[in-house]
Amino acid sequence: MKKDFIKTSAFRLITYLIFPIFLSATSAEIVLRVAGYKPWQIENLDVAVEPKGNFFTKDVELGYKHLPGKFKVTLNGNYSFHATHLNNSLRITRAIETYNTHSNKPEIWIFGCSFTYGWSLNDSETYPWLLQEKFPSYEIVNFGVNGYGTLHSLIQFKQALQQGKKPKIAVIAYAGFHDRRNTLLRARSKQMAAWNKLGILFQPDARLADNGSFTYSMAKLEYREFPLMRVSALSHFLEINYNQFEEQLYQSREVSLAIIREFHRLAEANNVKLVVAGINAGSAKMLEELNAGGIATVDISVDLKIPANNNLPHDLHPSAVANRQYAEKLVSFLQRPDSPTAIKFDR
After folding, report:
1. Cα-flanking dihedrals φ and ψ of residue 252, to 5°?
2. Per-residue pLDDT reduced to its tens digit, 309-346
3. Strand pairing partners for 58?
4. Can you tell me the distance from the alpha carbon of 281 to that of 295, in angstroms, rounded to the nearest whole number?
5. Which of 14, 66, 216, 243 would suit a FRET pair with 91, their CA atoms being 20 to 30 Å apart?
6. Domain check: are 31 and 118 in the same one?
7. What is the DSSP letter of 15?
8. Are 19 and 117 in a shared domain?
9. What pairs with residue 14 in β-bridges?
């Protein structure tokens, strides 16, 4: 009698609860796949670095930075570029042999991510190098580092000022996708999961404070998948939507705004002219708000969907053509007589 009851209860559980859930999940899986959603596939990162094998080294305050030296980077086995990093880990903006002598020139510091660094480009193809060619009476310093966000830029700025250096101009190359980097969202960790093969990455992780400022701590760039998301489109779909909710929850854009305002405050305190340059289409709203708040801005973005502006099929980063456009737009802004920063260049 008791066994019959247990069997009956189990049958009802399967019939009225488990089976409907299974049927609904199966139906949802089919619908999502038809709509184009797929299970998650981790990026197959085919990057070979010579001579060291690694490209990054651990840094206590920034999480990581580039290794010094000359590198040949090969993507997908068939596309290569050469990158040179100074002993301070920053990429060169002029011939390496010209760094043997100390420069007393006024400096322009450019902060940003891989777009500013010039990932997939040779040294002389990056827009900071092109700016150096345009303004030989100034020292252009490329603070751009692969994977950095605006928080990294602020930390770099503070570090450089503490070393007794001070530029005439600081340029933040801001992109809308920096927001998720500044708060180290799941979506960012997911994107970077494959890159740990070039060295374990850590990153500063910011949160908005009650007074409108922000706090941050160091966190490891690691990604925890949803169950079955490598085989289930439904699981991956739920994970994508959760990631979007998380971005709103942590107010990533507001965090970026607070970081830039702190950067501006620090720049003003040190008599440094600050310009925020929007480097992708997703930066427009931020530029509008910053400009309304008295911070100089310029849109230098280009359409990366145009084939000539990216390095596909080898890499989706901006091409040498795009970098020439970045340089032209930034030069034009800095030389404008009515520029909010009132920058004057020696001819």
Report:
1. -60, -40
2. 999 998 889 999 999 999 999 999 999 877 665 555 55
3. 64
4. 19
5. 216
6. no
7. I
8. no
9. none
Residue 61: strand pairing partners: none
Closest CA to 330 of 129, 89, 36, 127: 127
| Token pair in block for residue 159 | 């570090």
Q: What is the CATH number of the domain that holds 301?
A: 3.40.50.1110
Mean pLDDT of the chain: 86
Amino acid present at 19? F
Asked whether the beta carbons of 164 and 186 are under 8 A apart, the reply is no
How far apart are the C-alpha atoms of 285 and 293, rounded to whole Å? Answer: 13
Q: Is residue 126 part of a domain?
A: yes
Tokens 């252009």 sit on residue = 140
**Residue 80 in domain:** no
Q: Rounded to whole angstroms, how far apart are CA atoms 70 and 49?
A: 10
Query: Looking at the chain, how many residues does it have?
Result: 347
Residue 169 belongs to domain spanning: 55-64+87-93+104-335
> DSSP characters for 160-209?
HHHTT---SEEEEEE-TTHHHHHTT-HHHHHHHGGGGGGS--EEEEEEE-
